[in-house]
Amino acid sequence: MTKLEFYKELDSMLELEPNTIRGDERLADLPGGGSMSVISFIVLADMNFKKTVAAKAIAEARTVADLLNLFPGEIV
Question: Is 69 strand, coil or helix?
Answer without folding.
Answer: coil
